[in-house]
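Explain this fold:

***
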Amino acid sequence: MSYDLMVFDTKAAPQSREGFLAWYDKQTEWSEGHTYKDINVSADQLQRFYEDMVQVFPSMDVDDETFEAMEEEGTDNRLTEYSIGRHIIYVAFAWSRQKRHMRQCERWQPNTKSAFLM
């Protein structure tokens, strides 16, 4: 079971509730025409968020050697799945890491001028 959240570019998101929900639905259709693993497609502030986040919570897209080393160290539960869009980053991580992820997001959010949705 995972805990998911979405970090998004506040400049791209509609301000009204109805508009935001429609925009969210569109974003999560995953139809932008790229792999959703490439941080270079994302808005600058989301790139900064991602760069900081993967320092503490590495992407699940690691090679086998790295995964095995993390497993041996007991840190493989820090691995996080990132789906990267132009204006959003969808983050899925182990439920057991929820509080720590939320603290990190709250710490980084003001510096990146983005917002997150749980």
User: Anything to note?
Assistant: The beta strands are 2-9, 81-84, 88-94, 114-117.
